[in-house]
Specification:
The protein is α/β, with parallel strands linked by helices. The chain has helices at 10-22, 35-44, 55-62, 96-109, 141-155, 175-184, 193-197, 208-214, 220-232, and strands at residues 4-7, 27-30, 49-52, 75-78, 84-89, 115-117, 130-135, 164-168, 188-191, 236-244, 248-255. The protein has 2 domains: 4-117, Rossmann fold; 130-255, Nucleotidyltransferase, domain 5 (2-Layer Sandwich). Helix 5 (141-155) packs across helix 6.
């Protein structure tokens, strides 16, 4: 289901624009009229909700339509600066805990000091399985999907086991990558070149050509490692080393098993 982002202030609207880069298929309502009906309708339709406003407002508005934690959609509440991403409703069963974590990670990658706030007794995050991708400008989503499928087949992973798509921050607005993330229902997490450059010694296939072009010796492998490590706060390893086509690269990573 396409997420719905609702903001009430100008600063909140700016944060909503950033969130829109993470979830290209999301719908953004700024100061919607009628306000309560907009939130309640989205909730009743089962749409994931990201509300940039106080938690009190959200609780009061959604209280009349709350049902069952096994059926209600996930609801996040964010302050307008993006510092806190609160998993308000359906944290464990509905996936709000994992969504809050992924959102905070993606905002941090964009320079926002963000933190997921998870208060349920059984916070749950899927084991991180990350696809790192790099591509030439204008690479189509079909080409990216086909390359990703090769990597998934090699790893023995299903598409629905992926937790994030990761790349270089220069690719944050790349249409093909954004379309692929939307198709997969995943956040597109991007990193500055300096973060990926630090992972250079651990890459299986570093490239001086890539380093000269973008400032880091690899995108796919480094982005996959960075995102998997951020997810688990632990070292990660490459499961599938870089696969390269004429237009794109892909690699898969996951945290080291404890």
């Amino acid at each position: 289901m396409r997420p719905v982002i609702v903001s009430l202030t100008d600063a909140g609207a700016r944060l909503a624009e950033t969130l829109g880069t993470l979830w290209p298929a999301a719908v953004h309502h700024h100061r919607p009229v009628p306000f309560a009906e907009t939130l309640q309708t989205a909730f009743a339709e089962g749409r994931p909700l990201a509300c940039i406003m106080s938690s009190g407002i959200v609780v009061r508005v959604l209280a009349p339509v709350l049902g069952d934690k096994h059926r209600d959609p996930p609801v996040l509440v964010l302050d307008e600066a993006g510092r806190h991403v609160v998993a308000l409703l359906s944290g464990h069963e509905g996936g709000a805990n994992a969504w809050a974590w992924e959102t905070a990670q993606a905002l941090r990658a964009r320079g926002i000091d963000s933190e997921a706030v998870i208060t349920s007794n059984r916070p749950y995050l899927r084991p991180a399985r990350v696809a790192g991708m790099g591509c030439a400008r204008g690479t189509g989503v079909a080409h990216l999907q086909a390359l990703l499928n090769q990597a998934l087949e090699r790893a023995g992973w299903r598409e629905d086991e992926l937790t994030a798509l990761a790349s270089l921050d220069l690719k944050a607005d790349e249409p093909g990558l954004r379309a692929l993330a939307a198709r997969l229902g995943l956040p597109l997490v991007t990193y500055p070149a300096a973060r990926l450059e630090a992972l250079g010694p651990r890459l299986a296939n570093p490239s001086p050509v890539v380093a000269a072009a973008v400032g880091c010796p690899g995108v796919a492998e480094a982005a996959a490692l960075a995102c998997a490590e951020d997810h688990a706060a632990a070292p990660a390893r490459l499961v599938v080393e870089k696969i390269k086509s004429q237009q794109a690269t892909v690699a898969l990573a996951r945290p080291e098993e404890k």
